[in-house]
Amino acid sequence: MSESDPSFRLVKITSCVLLLFFSVSATIFTEASKREDGTYPYNTVVIPCAAEAVKLMVSSVFVLRERLTWEKHSQPLSSSSLQSFVAYSFPALCYFVSNNCMFYIIRYLGASTFQIMNNLKVLSTGVFLYTFLGRKLSWLQWKALIMLVIGCMVTQLSTSCDEGSRANNQSNLAGYALVFVSAVASGAGGVFSEWLLKGKGAAAQRSNGDKDSIHWQNMQLYVFGVLFGVVSLRMDANWASVPGQNPFHGFNAFAYATVATLAICGLLVSFILKYLDNVAKCFCAALSMLCVALLDSFMNHETIPMRLTLGIFLTGLALEQYHL
Fold first, then answer.
1. Which of 35, 206, 226, 305 minimizes the number of CB atoms within 10 Å of its CB?
2. Tens-place pLDDT, residues 26-56
3. Residue 186: CB atoms within 10 Å
C-alpha cells in the first residue's frame, strides 16, 4: 500500500483518531491510579520503562515478521550504522524525561491542567522545527503559537488571591517548572524523531535511508528508552533501599492500563511522525486537551470554569490558525 493510495490516507486519519483516544485514556488512567491523598502507590519510574519495553517487544515482533518475508521486497527493509543507531539515544532521552514529568505534573496540577499546559510543547516544537530543520513558519503561524501560550496561561488564572496554602503554591511552582521541562523535552524529541524517521538524520547519506522499516527504526529508539528506564530505576533511592523488590509493587489495574495506553501512543506517534509530521501530532494533543477537561469536569460533577472554557477556546483557535 503506497502513501498516495486513498486507503493509506484513511490509515493516517485513523491513526490520528486513535492517538487522540489513547492520549486521553493515558491521562485519565494516570489520574485514576493515584491514592486518595494524591500520591502514587507504585514507583512512577517503572511506568515509562515498562511502556518502552512493551513497544520494543511489539516492534521486534514486526521486524522479525518482515525479516522472514524480506525476499518478497526489491530491497532490504532496513540498514544500519553505529552513528545512526546512537542518534536515536537523544529522542529516547527526551521522551523518557517528558513521560516521567507527566506523573508529577498531574499530581501537582491535576489531569485537566496537565492536558492544557501540555500544549506548550506546540510552541517548543515550532521553535525546534525552525531552528534545527529550517522549516519556515508564517507570521500567522507564529501568532497562533503565541495565542496558544496565552490560552494556557489563562487556564491558570485564580479567582481568589488566598486560594490554597503556601505548600500548595510551592507544589504549583514545581508543577509549572516540570511543565516547562516536559514541553522542551517533548518538542525536541518529536522534532529529532521526525528527522530520523524520515531518513534525514545520520542515515541521510544512504540512498535508501528514507525506505527503512518503521519497525526497525522504532526498535533502535525503544532500545535506548528501555536502557534509560532501567538506569533511572537502579538509581532511584526508594528502589535501591529494598533489594529484590518487585518493580510492579503497588500497581493497580489503572497503572497497568496506563502502561498499555502509553505504549500504544508511542507506536502511533512514530507512525504519524514518519508519514505525517509534528503538527498532526500536536493537533491530536490539542483535541485531547478538550476531551480530558470535559471528562474531568463530568467525573467530578462540576461545571467547567470560565477560565478553562476561555483557555480551551483560545488554544483551539490558535491551533486552527496554525493549520491555516
1. 35
2. 988 998 998 888 888 988 888 989 999 999 9
3. 27
